[in-house]
């Protein structure tokens, strides 16, 4: 059997998979259609380009499931986590990344490996021979999507992702805006001041909501149903659910004190998070939108402190394709009808940068074991990795399957001796158990990285 692994798609999952396989001694060919074939969301031809937020979310590996996933990936020599740590930006308790050098480092690292070849081409079918891993992500090309649908005998499922705008820092009015992380969270001064805060009075908030609801929106193509991933709802969709929804969501004013007017309590607050190491760009936290470009400029300049804002990137919305994985993939992420093909990343129904990369890591390790004759036991469902792969390979209800971020609800219940414990104790028990089980699984993987 050939020891070449073909990986289709050079996003988070594909890049991580290529790194894992190459370090185990396999020959790897990455098939990436960019920049020859462009997408709505991508702006470069680099690998692991961050197209939406620049945040990997919480880095708390004791109390948060995604932080635990960060920890597990670091233990497994993850290239994605190493680059994220290298290009980390202040973000309170979150892991935010300077997106351009992050992507450049991963691209340069993989291009520099003798056993990795990058081919700029679109793969539009499911090959009958060879060892293949498809990590084409939410922007799977229409032609390949049709091939997958034809093979699986099912209509493609899809939802919509929205992208938030990015603002030039030197156009933000710092006489109105102040720097502070919510509840002053963070161990350093940079972390405690990782966010810029734009305060609103009640009248300003009401006027903003009116403008948001009245603004021109992007229309969907005929036959498309506007189903959104709940973790990435456009702000106008949230506003349509109730005028106070945003004030209790991304615009909540809690845990913040206006440095310019400490005695005045804001009715609502828009937060901006640094988007690059230079501090010249800030993204609007939770402000994914499907408003048309002209409307965005008008509406967002109603926000105090952003009256003269210039935008490095405006928001947008794109179709996000995923498979009904519980009916199609086995426990090692192989397509049941074609076991020479694996799938990983967002196309399998996990949501988020880290979750996608994690499934790429896991799929690669399954492929490494198969191609080298190594023995690889099932990943414990008690780990973050195991919880995710169990969810997509049969743990979820196929009829209602939807993309999912990692969360403790996917884990088997933990047995807390001594009766009911509080939430911090329960989450700590989940993460302690996961860490022990993940380390034991890694030690059983008998193909060591080079």
From TrEMBL:
Gene Ontology cellular component terms for the protein in this record: cytosol
Catalysed conversion reaction: uridine(54) in tRNA + (6R)-5,10-methylene-5,6,7,8-tetrahydrofolate + NADPH + H(+) = 5-methyluridine(54) in tRNA + (6S)-5,6,7,8-tetrahydrofolate + NADP(+); uridine(54) in tRNA + (6R)-5,10-methylene-5,6,7,8-tetrahydrofolate + NADH + H(+) = 5-methyluridine(54) in tRNA + (6S)-5,6,7,8-tetrahydrofolate + NAD(+)
Domain MnmG N-terminal, residue spans: 5-373
Names of required cofactors: FAD
Keyword NAD: yes
EC number(s) recorded for this UniProt protein: 2.1.1.74
Gene3D superfamilies in the cross-refs: FAD/NAD(P)-binding domain (3.50.50.60)
Matching InterPro entries: FAD/NAD-bd_sf (IPR036188), MnmG-rel (IPR002218), MnmG-rel_CS (IPR020595), MnmG_N (IPR040131), TrmFO (IPR004417)
Pfam families noted in UniProt: GIDA
GO MF, one example: tRNA (uracil(54)-C5)-methyltransferase activity, 5,10-methylenetetrahydrofolate-dependent
SUPFAM superfamilies: FAD/NAD(P)-binding domain
Enzyme category, top tier: transferase
Subcellular locations according to the entry: Cytoplasm
Positions of FAD binding: 9-14
Highest taxon listed in the record's lineage: Bacteria
Keywords: Cytoplasm, FAD, Flavoprotein, Methyltransferase, NAD, NADP, Transferase, tRNA processing
GO biological process, one term: tRNA wobble uridine modification
NCBIfam families per UniProt: gid_trmFO (TIGR00137), PRK05335.1 (NF003739)
Family membership noted in the UniProt record: Belongs to the MnmG family. TrmFO subfamily.
Role noted for this protein: Catalyzes the folate-dependent formation of 5-methyl-uridine at position 54 (M-5-U54) in all tRNAs. NAD-binding protein involved in the addition of a carboxymethylaminomethyl (cmnm) group at the wobble position (U34) of certain tRNAs, forming tRNA-cmnm(5)s(2)U34.
This protein's name: Methylenetetrahydrofolate--tRNA-(uracil-5-)-methyltransferase TrmFO
Organism field: Maritimibacter harenae
Underlying gene: trmFO
């Amino acid at each position: 059997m050939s020891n070449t692994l073909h990986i289709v798609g050079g996003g988070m999952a594909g890049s991580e998979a290529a790194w894992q396989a190459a370090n185990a001694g396999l020959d790897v060919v990455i098939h990436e259609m960019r920049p020859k074939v462009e997408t709505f969301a991508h702006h470069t031809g680099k690998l692991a380009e961050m197209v939406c937020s620049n945040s990997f979310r919480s880095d708390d590996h004791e109390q948060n499931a995604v932080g635990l996933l960060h920890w597990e990936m670091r233990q497994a020599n993850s290239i994605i986590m190493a680059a994220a740590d290298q290009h980390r930006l202040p973000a309170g308790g979150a892991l935010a990344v300077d997106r351009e050098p992050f992507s450049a480092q991963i691209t340069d690292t993989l291009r520099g490996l003798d056993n990795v070849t990058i081919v700029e081409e679109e793969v539009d079918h499911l090959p009958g021979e060879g060892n293949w891993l498809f990590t084409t992500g939410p922007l799977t090309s229409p032609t390949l999507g049709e091939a997958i649908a034809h093979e699986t005998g099912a209509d493609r499922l899809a939802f919509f992702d929205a992208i938030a705008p990015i603002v030039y820092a030197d156009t933000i009015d710092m006489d109105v805006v102040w720097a502070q992380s919510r509840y002053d969270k963070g161990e350093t001064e940079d972390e405690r001041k990782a966010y810029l805060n734009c305060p609103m009075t009640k009248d300003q908030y009401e006027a903003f909501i009116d403008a948001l609801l009245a603004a021109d929106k992007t229309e969907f193509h005929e036959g498309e149903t506007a189903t959104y991933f709940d973790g990435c709802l456009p702000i106008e969709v949230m506003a349509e659910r109730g005028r106070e929804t945003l004030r209790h969501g991304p615009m909540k004013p809690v845990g913040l004190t206006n440095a310019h007017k400490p005695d005045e309590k804001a009715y609502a607050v828009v937060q901006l998070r640094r988007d690059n190491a230079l501090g010249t760009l800030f993204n609007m936290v939770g402000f994914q939108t499907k408003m048309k470009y002209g409307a965005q400029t008008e509406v967002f300049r109603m926000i105090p402190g952003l009256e003269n804002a210039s935008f490095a990137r405006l928001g947008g919305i794109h179709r996000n394709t995923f498979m009904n994985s519980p009916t199609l993939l086995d426990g090692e992420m192989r397509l049941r009808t074609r076991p020479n093909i694996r799938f990983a990343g967002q196309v399998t129904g996990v949501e988020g940068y880290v979750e996608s990369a994690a499934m790429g890591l896991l799929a690669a390790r399954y492929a490494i074991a198969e191609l080298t004759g190594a023995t690889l036991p099932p990943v414990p469902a008690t780990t973050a990795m195991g919880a995710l792969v169990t969810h997509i390979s049969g743990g979820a209800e196929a009829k209602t399957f939807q993309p999912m971020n990692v969360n403790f609800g996917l884990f088997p219940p933990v047995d807390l001796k001594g009766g009911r414990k509080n939430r911090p104790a329960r989450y700590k028990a989940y993460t302690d158990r996961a860490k022990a089980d993940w380390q034991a699984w890694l030690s059983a993987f008998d193909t060591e990285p080079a």
